[in-house]
Amino acid sequence: MRLPSFLTAGEADRVVPATGPSALLTTISAALMAFLAVFALALSLSAGQLAMRWSDTLSQSATLRLSATPSEIGAQTTAVLEILRTTPGIAGTRVLELEEQRALLEPWFGPDLPLESLALPRLIEIIESPEGFDATGLRLRLASEAPGAVLDDHTRWRRPLVEAAGSLRALAWVSAALIGGLMAATITLAAGFSLAANAQVIRVLRLVGARDAFIVRAFVRRFTLRALGGAAIGTALGLAAFALLPVAGESGFLTGLGFAGRGWLMPLAIPPLAALIAWIATRIAAQHHLRKES
Amino acid sequence: MVIRLANVAHDYGGRALLAGIDLQIAPGAFHFLTGPSGAGKSTLLKLCYGELRPSSGQIELFGQSLATLSRDGLADVRRRIGVIHQDCRFLDHLTLAENVALPFVATGRPVPTRDLLDLLSWVGLGEQVESLPPTLSGGERQRAALARAVILSPEVVLADEPTGNIDPEMSQRLLGLLIELNRMGTAVMIATHDMGLIRAAKSQVSARVLRIVDRTLQQAGADL
Q1: Domain ranges of chain A
Q2: Is the pLDDT of residue A20 over 80?
Q3: Which of B71, B126, B148 sits opposite A212 (nearest CB)?
C-alpha cells in the first residue's frame, strides 16, 4: 500500500482552507497597501534628499548686490571684492556678467530689455568654503566700507524651503504609518471574517484536542503567508512603476522623486513588515475570537 | 471514574432540557443512551466532553472538575475522549487520512503512518486514504469518524447516532468495531434511538441502557 503524505504540525496552516473571500481580501489589501507604501517611502526618501540638496545648495552660496552711481560702481566693486577676498570662509567670488543678469531678468521683462540704459545693481556671487563665513561680521564691514552693498546669504529662502521639505518628509512617514495601520485593520477584519467563516474548522480542532495555541498558529500562519505574498506583489508592482517613470530633468519641484542607489533596497523591507503586521493582527483577532467562543 | 455527572441540569433558550442528571462512566463500561428525538441525547453527550457547560450541577472528566478546567486543560482532557458525531465533522479540504490523523497533528505529534494505515484497514477504508470526505458514502464517513475518534487510544468513546445515516448492514459493522474497541478496554457510550442496534449489542456485550425521559436520566427496562 502506498504511504500517504500527511500534514505535520509545522503545516498547521493547512487546516485552514486556502481559498475563500477572506483569503482574497487579505492578499489584495496587502498588495494595495504595499504598493502605496512604496510611494510613501519614495516620497519620504525624496523629501529628505530634497531638503538636504536645497540646504546644501543654498548654504554654500550667497549673493552680494551692489548699488552705486555709474561713476562709482567700478571703485565700489573693487573695494567689495577686496573685502570678500580677505574675509575668512569665502572660497571665491564671481561678478555676474551683463549677459547673465539679462538671462535672470528675461523671464519677467523679455529678451529686449536695454540693460545698458538701466542703473542695475552689480551682482557678485560668493562661494563659501566648507566652514562658512560670518554673515553678520561681513555685513558690518560692508556697511562701513561699501554702504551700497547688500549681502543676501539666502537664509530667508533656505529656512522655509528646508522646513517645507522636512514637513513633506514627516507627512510621508505619517502616510506610511497610516498605511500600516490600515493594513492591520483590514487584516484584522479579514481574520475575524475568516475565523467566523471557519467555525467548523475550529469546532473540529477543539474536538480532537487542539489547544488554542495550535488553532491560533494555524490562522496566523495562513494570514501571515497571504499578507507576505500580497505585499511582495504590491511592492514589486510599485518598484516597477518607479522603474518605468520617465527620468526627470534637473529642474522642477519633484525632480528626483523615486529611488536611487541603495534606496532601491529599502522597499524590500515592506513585505516582511506587512507579514509582521499580519502576524500581530491575526494573532490578536484569533485569541480574541477563541476567548469569546469558549 | 472516567466521566461523572452529578445533579446536572442544562437549559437552552430559557427552557430546561435536562435536569437532575446523575451519570457515571467507569473504565471499560458500555452504555447506550436512548430516548425520543429532541430528548437531549446529543446535549448530554456534549456535556460529557465539555462542548457544553451545565446550567447547574457538577461534571468531572477524569477526576477534574469541568468548572475549573482551563481551555488548555479541556483540550488535554479531550485527547482522552474520542467523539463520533452523526455529521462526522470533517475538514473537507483535507484527505481522509489527513482527517483521521488530525488529532496527532493538532497535538503536535508525528503521525505514525503505519499505525494509521492499520487503523484505516481495521475500519475497512484502506483503499480510500487519499479520498476527500465529500466523496465518501455515509457508512465510510462514519467509519472514518470512528478511526479519528480512536487514533489517540482514548479511554472513552462517545458516539452520537453513529448509525443514523447508514444502512443496517453497515450499522452492524460499525457496532462490531465499537464492541471490539470496548473489549480492548475502552469505555463506550452510544446515543441512539435504534432499538435494533441496542438489542444486537446486548447479545454480544454487557451494556447498560439509559433512557432520557422527561429531562431526566433513567435506567431502561429489562425489555431492552
Answers
A1: 11-50+166-293, 68-147
A2: no
A3: B71
Q: Do A207 and B51 touch (CB under 8 A)?
A: yes
In chain A, residues with a C-beta closer than 8 Å to the C-beta of B72 are 211-213
From the CA of B149, how many Å to the nearest CA of chain A? 8
* Three-point CA angle B31, B82, A288, nearest 5°: 125
Whether the pLDDT of residue A50 is over 50: the answer is yes
pLDDT value of position A98: 78
Spatial distance between the Cα atoms of B119 and B148, rounded to a whole number of angstroms: 9
Q: Share the mean pLDDT of chain A.
A: 83
Taking CB atoms and an 8 Å limit, are A209 and B76 in contact across chains? yes
Strand, helix or coil for residue B4: strand
> Residue A294: which of B71, B83, B94 has the nearest Cβ?
B71
The answer to whether the CB atoms of A208 and B78 lie below 8 A apart is yes
User: Could you tell me the three cell numbers for B125?
Assistant: 477504508
Of chain B, the percentage scoring pLDDT greater than 70 comes to: 98
pTM over 0.80: no
For residues A118 and B57, the model is more confident at B57
Of B89, B110, B126, the CB nearest to A204: B89
Name the residue facing A6 among B106, B111, B126 (closest C-beta). B111
Distance separating alpha carbons of residues A212 and A169, to the nearest angstrom: 43
Residue B48 has pLDDT above 70, yes or no: yes
CA-based nearest residue in chain A for residue B121: A1
pLDDT tens-digit map of B65-115: 999 999 999 999 999 999 999 888 899 999 999 999 999 998 888 888 889
Q: Which CATH architecture group holds B29-53+70-207?
A: 3-Layer(aba) Sandwich (3.40)
Place of cell 466523496: B135
Which residue, chain included where needed, has cell 465529500?
B134
- Kindly provide the ipTM of the predicted complex, given to two decimals: 0.87
Q: How far is CA A4 from CA A79, B116, B130, in A?
A: 96, 10, 7
B148 at interface of A, judged by CB pairs closer than 8 A: yes
Q: What is the average per-residue pLDDT within B23-29?
A: 95
Task: Give the pLDDT score at A1.
Answer: 46
Q: How far is residue B166 CA from its own chain's centroid? A: 16
To the nearest whole Å, the CA of A212 is away from the closest chain B CA by: 7
Cβ neighbours of A197 in B, within 8 Å:
none
